[in-house]
């Protein structure tokens, strides 16, 4: 038996088995953060710095005409509470969680986005017609899970550019 090979093998098994452990217990390992790159975010400082600060949430028009929507899932609400997107235009969703695992869904569609703390979940969505969709959480996340929902309003694409940024970000009052 070659002891050097065995030792290398055992060390490899040990290191590989540590990777799922860090994921499960949300341990912050600099190497893993480096490997995951920009999809890694700190769930404890979402409101303080980075992509998910409050005035960056909601819908933003991209230079190519598509839109990007940024949201935070937290017990027990999605922020913003209501979002607005244009019909028939690609929507890039970027969402992260401040606490537990949530799942953002859009009633009447097959879209389902799992949201984890520490990671940015991305999805490409598109809504062909104006309308309103309930966006309930479909992953049990605690006592308030069943009341956790946001709303999506899809407006005609020619109406969208005329809206003020604050109207796009939070349409709950409309
Ligand atoms: Cu969030 Cu269920």
Describe it for me?
This protein has three helices and ten strands, in the order ααββββββββββα. It has helices at residues 3-25, 30-36, 165-169; strands at 58-61, 67-74, 77-79, 82-86, 91-97, 102-105, 112-115, 121-125, 131-136, 149-155. The radius of gyration is 20 Å and the shape is elongated. The protein has 174 residues and is of the alpha+beta class. Strands 1, 2, 3, 5 and 8 form a five-stranded mixed sheet that branches. A three-stranded mixed sheet has the order 4-10-9. The structure holds dinuclear copper ion. Residues 76, 102, 137, 139-141, 145, 148 line the site of dinuclear copper ion (CUA).
Overview features:
alpha+beta; 174 residues; binds dinuclear copper ion; 3 helices; 5-stranded mixed beta sheet; 3-stranded mixed beta sheet
In a nutshell, what does this entry contain?
The chain has 174 residues and is an alpha+beta fold. The chain is built from three helices and ten strands.
End-to-end gap: 74 Å
Sheet with the most strands?
Answer: 5 strands, mixed
Roughly what is the average pLDDT, rounded to an integer? Answer: 86
Helix amount, in percent? Answer: 10-25%
Find the count of extended strands (DSSP E, 2+ residues): 10
- The proportion of strand residues reads 25-35%
* Global structural class: alpha+beta
General shape: elongated
Which ligands occur here? dinuclear copper ion
Counted by DSSP, the helix tally is 3
Radius of gyration: 20 Å
Order of helices and strands: HHEEEEEEEEEEH
Could you name the ranges where pLDDT drops below 50 across 5 or more consecutive residues?
none
